[in-house]
Amino acid sequence: MSLAETPAVFALLSVNTLVGAVLVTAAYDLKDVVLGWTGWIAGAAGGGVIGWVVVPRVASGTVSTGGRIGFAATLVLIGAFLGRGLLPLVARFTVAISAFLFSTLATLVSTVGESVLEEVYDPESAGAPVVEAVDPAALSGSGLFARPEFQRFLVASLVVGVVAGVLAMRYYDPIISLALTGLGAGILATTYPVWRAVLAGEALAITQQAAPSSPAFLAFLLAGTAIQYLRHGDDDPVFGAAG
C-alpha cells in the first residue's frame, strides 16, 4: 500500500512519530501534564466502571438504566478528581518502592546468589530442564536464613535498598522524565523502520515493518536525555544534581 492509498494509516504513523518526538525532547517539561491527564483519565474510567457495573450489583433491588447513568456520571467526576490528586503521589511511592525492591534483590543475589543457587538447584541429570530442577521450597528448610553471614548480607542489602528508595524519592522528577523519555524513544524506535522502508520506496505495511530497533531506541534515549539535561541542567537543581 502506498501512502496515497492509506491516508489514515499514514496519519496514525505521523501522530505516533510526533508523540514520540515530543516525549523524547520535552519529557521533563511534560511530566506533570502527563501524570495529571493520566490521573484524570484513569480515575474517570475507574469511577465509571464502578458506577455502571459494581454499584448496581451491590445495590438492593433493580437499578434502572437512568440510575446506572446517574451512578456512573457521579463516580466519573469523583474518580477523575481522586485520580488527578492521587496518581502523582502513587507514582512517587511506586518509584521509591521499586527502587528499594530491585536494589535489595540485586544486592542480595550478587552477594549470596551462589549459596541460594546451591540450595534450590538440584538437577536429577545433566540434561534436566532448568525450570524442573529448581525447587524454591527447599530454601525455607535449608537453614540459610539462620546463617550469620546470610543475615549480614541481608541487612546490607536492605540498607542499600533503603538508600536507593530515598534517592528515588529525592530524584523523582528526573526518574519520571527518563521513563517518559524511554517511552518516547520506544515509540520512535518502532516507527523508525517504517519510515525507513517508506523512504526506500517500499509499500507501507506497518504490521510487518514496525519491528522495534534496539540501536534506534538507544540512540533516541541518549539523545533525548542529553537534550533535556542541556535544557534543564543549569536552572533546575534537582535535574542538575541527577546529571
Q: On the 0-100 scale, what is the average pLDDT?
A: 75
Task: Supply Rg.
Answer: 25 Å
Distance between the termini: 45 Å
Helical run tally: 9
Shape: flat
Spans where pLDDT lies below 50 across 5 or more residues:
129-133
- The level of helicity is over 70%
The proportion of strand residues reads under 5%
Largest sheet: none
Helix-strand string = HHHHHHHHH
Strand-pairing-aware structural class: mainly alpha
**Extended strand count:** 0
Name the assembly state. Answer: single chain
What do these coordinates show?
The protein is mostly helical and 243 residues long. The chain is built from 9 helices and no strands. It has helices at residues 7-58, 65-120, 130-133, 137-140, 148-170, 172-199, 206-209, 214-232, 237-242. The longest helix is centred in the middle third of the chain and has 56 residues, at 65-120. It is flat. Mean pLDDT is 75; it is low at 129-133.
Helices, strands, pairings?
Layout: H1 7-58, H2 65-120, H3 130-133, H4 137-140, H5 148-170, H6 172-199, H7 206-209, H8 214-232, H9 237-242
Helix pairs in contact: 1-2, 1-6, 1-8, 2-5, 6-8
Brief account:
This protein has 9 helices and no strands. It is an all-alpha fold and 243 residues long. Residues 129-133 have low confidence and may be disordered.
Features:
243 residues; mainly alpha; 9 helices; flat
